[in-house]
Sequence to fold (819 residues):
Amino acid sequence: MNKLKTKIRNKGRQIKQLALGVAQGLYARAYVKAKGDSLNFDPVFYLNQYPDIKNSGTDPFSHYVFHGRKEGRVGHSPVLGQSGAEFAQLDPARETVIVVSHEASRTGAPILSLNLIMMLKRRYNVIAIVLGGGELTDEFKHSGTVFIDATGMRFNPDHARVLIDKICSQTQIKFAVVNSIESRVMLQGLSANFVPAISLLHEFSAYTRPKTAFLESMFWSTRTVFSSSVIHRSAIQDFPNLANFEADILPQGRCEVTFAKVDEHEVAREETRLRNIFSTLKKGNKRIVLGAGLVQLRKGVDLFIDCAARVLENGEMNDLHFVWVGKGYDPENDVQYSAYLFDQIRRAGLEDHVTFISETSAIQVVYDEASAVLITSRLDPLPNVAIDAISRGLPVLCFAETTGIVDFLDECGLREACVARYLNVSDMARKLTALMTDPASMSTIGETLKSASAHRFAMQTYIDGLESIAIEAIAQAAQEKLDFTTIEQAAVYRSDFIPRYHRTISDFDTLRMHGRSWANNIKERRLFPGFHPAIFAEQSSDYRAGQNPLACYLRAGKPDGPWIDEVLTPSSPVTADVQQGRVALHVHVFYADLFDEVLDCLSINKVRPDLFLSAPNDQVKAELETLKSRYTGNVVAIEVVPNRGRDIGPFLTSFNRRHLRDYDVIGHFHTKKSKDQSNPEVGSVWYDFLLENLLGRAHPMADVIISRLLSDQRVGMVFADDPHIVCWGKNRSYAEELQVRLGLSELPENIVFPVGSMFWARTESLRSLDALELSWDDYPAEPLPYDGSMLHALERLFPLIVQSNGYDIALTNVKSITR
Fold:
């Protein structure tokens, strides 16, 4: 009875909730309809913008009306129709540019964006796209530009692309300046429209999340501009493949921080207030040591206080007072940082020596009252406070490897006087004391900085530099568009050949990614088998620098050369009797369960190579002894081998080399599980790819390959055509050492090789490997790195050895099989 009551009660509750949901949905729709254009709610946009709502199955109307607006969620994409009048009023005699700001807060990047707008609008029509709100929103709106409020779009590149598509449909864009890594969402849309995009990167990769943000930004940008070399070095340290990426270093100009009319009486009151504070602090002829910025760990406020403590301990505080100006010091409520700063001051006995002043609209008074500035940031690209102080002739001290200001101090010959060792507070305290006790040096340093900064940090200098970069970006974007058209019209693209994770929603986007990858040397891609773009670019006289190598190859009429290799497919003829050839197959079996798959693949072929099996231990050998009964051919040997040389060691050193000397053709395989990959599925996909290409599951690829090797004496090696561009990596030095021993000619920069070290070869073509006389002790001990060893080098050298012996290589490709 109780169960029945509970069931009825639950059913009633469900009906009530359903009725309430329906009522809320009806009300929400009526509300949205009544509000009309003031809401302009788009349910499709809303669900695509917020996957959490879409995945929950919640009604978009109900969620937006009852919850979404309060949470700050955006209900529609930017509507250019609201700015239609501004677009109509664009000066037709002027070209149009875009400036993107990630938000409108009163912080460094948005302030720079506004300064860029003010300077660029002197020559261009400017479209300002702002991806978030802030105190400067009105300044952006009234900056004399076409203002587009793209709030809510910062994390949705699909909708950002729709916006760029709309803009480009209404007006031609000369170039776009995308300010800050946080504005990168607009880059893909700009690239899709072939708009030259210049990204301004001020952030350190160390504190930028996600970690892939830099790679994403630099991939889609036509040109990338770092504000200092230390930021560029940081990016390369985290992403070594960016070392070959062309980037510009251009320090930003000194920014104006006031954009609207100010209340002069209010400013005068603030100036008076500050001068009164400093008058009190400077009693007894004390001088002010200034720190400034948002009170947070990155700014190193604790290091600023620590420096004051070191000066006090050394008995040199009598004529100094340390002042930090900036927002955020709140020890009562900020228990994450401020409370600890307060305690640090108290325990160090600095209550009378360190003062905090909140942010101020009269910052010029602070500079007037200061004698020196400390930049104690742990990481701070090019802080405005440093530029402002330097421009006023104030000595500035900072830590090495933490800020772009170091570059400028170096150029001025002031590293010894003004740059302390990395986060070494004692060193900074010593340099500060030495400076403050030497008025002549202070004056000289101040004048040097002021004079040098007049041009270096002039905003016009910065704009001139950006426009010079823009000229190059415009030419590059035009070339990319031409190359894209050439490749598209040639219809050479094979979508099934593209790696799975490189495929996009459309052929257009895949081809655009291909163009970008070759333009910026990041994750270069191939579009079809048998042609290697990098080898063409390196070795063909038809290649023109700055062009996409595939497009250049097509325009040159597809010339023959080492960049083209024969491709064997399931439809290639089997002209030789593969059962009559002297064929062996070596398999190094790490995993017996995977060897079972090898046997399955061999069974669909006519060829029955003699098997030479190597195993890492007796257990695997015992499993192989059981499995060999499944094979209808001859299993010549099963040997346990030392744990040296991975799969290549057993191939070159085991079985008294009978498999390499007693046969015409030899295959080399191993049961592959890629433990080095963060995603275990990668190894599985790779292994399946190699089996399909070199043995075959649906098609007898081993028969095709063996037939080619037996019937054409020119072919020395056959392996799978990998869709990735893989080169020497960290293995060049190892390869050069082996090159000498093998008597090979100079190594090319770009190569094609059996990625995964699985192949079929004519044994005669590998005969020069005997010169290495490799024993087990010659192979590096485990564990081996993911990249960078003698074994990785050998894998890359196999085709060059074959070609040095006068043979060709051929590749395989099975349609719709890729990795």
Summary: Residues 2-35 form the longest helix (34 residues).
